[in-house]
């Protein structure tokens, strides 16, 4: 069974979109039962919160639902997930620093954008932006998750 955890600072904008997009793609491809899919935050700011309403609206416009609640990445995540996919360099360095103290590190920590066929490495935070910014995040997640799934199926 493969495992993927999508991460960013608060776990209410980018990472729940990536999680929901990847789950839908895995479901549509008939491989969802071969995956453990989740998302988490590098901070504890929003633990227990639902994703941003604009992100949920964006997902619904594309026929995707999410019942995710924000959570913080744990030590066990580093030991149990195959991949921890970050949205930007700050998340990447934060998680790599935390990984240094994990004895049984299993996770490969990388940027989700490294799978973008358009070479947009960073998935920008739409929190202070508009609905258009959430759509941009969605589109980039679709591109990245498609390549990631193809390479790991």
Automatic annotation (TrEMBL):
It is an enzyme of class 3 (hydrolase). It catalyses: a phosphate monoester + H2O = an alcohol + phosphate; O-phospho-L-tyrosyl-[protein] + H2O = L-tyrosyl-[protein] + phosphate. SMART domains: LMWPc. It is found in: Cytoplasm. One of its GO terms (molecular function) is non-membrane spanning protein tyrosine phosphatase activity. GO terms for cellular component: cytoplasm. Residues 5-151 form the Phosphotyrosine protein phosphatase I domain. The active site is at 14, 125 (proton donor). The keyword Cytoplasm applies. Its EC number is 3.1.3.2, 3.1.3.48. Keywords: Cytoplasm, Hydrolase, Protein phosphatase. InterPro entries: LMW_PTPase (IPR050438), Ptyr_pPase (IPR023485), Ptyr_pPase_sf (IPR036196), Tyr_Pase_low_mol_wt_mml (IPR002115), Tyr_phospatase_low_mol_wt (IPR017867). Its main location: cytoplasm. Belongs to the low molecular weight phosphotyrosine protein phosphatase family. Acts on tyrosine phosphorylated proteins, low-MW aryl phosphates and natural and synthetic acyl phosphates. This is Low molecular weight phosphotyrosine protein phosphatase. It comes from Pygocentrus nattereri (Red-bellied piranha).
């Amino acid at each position: 069974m493969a495992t993927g955890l999508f991460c960013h600072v608060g776990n209410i904008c980018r990472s729940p979109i990536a999680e929901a997009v990847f789950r839908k793609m895995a479901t549509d491809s008939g491989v969802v039962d071969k995956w453990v899919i989740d998302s988490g935050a590098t901070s504890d700011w929003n633990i227990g919160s639902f994703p941003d309403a604009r992100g949920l609206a964006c997902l619904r416009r594309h026929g995707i639902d999410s019942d995710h609640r924000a959570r913080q990445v744990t030590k066990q995540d580093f030991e149990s997930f195959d991949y921890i996919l970050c949205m930007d360099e700050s998340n990447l360095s934060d998680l790599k620093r935390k990984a240094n103290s994990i004895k049984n590190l299993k996770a490969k920590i990388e940027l989700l954008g490294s799978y973008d066929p358009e070479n947009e490495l960073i998935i920008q935070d739409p929190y202070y932006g508009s609905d258009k910014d959430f759509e941009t995040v969605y589109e980039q997640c679709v591109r990245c998750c498609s390549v990631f799934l193809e390479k790991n199926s």
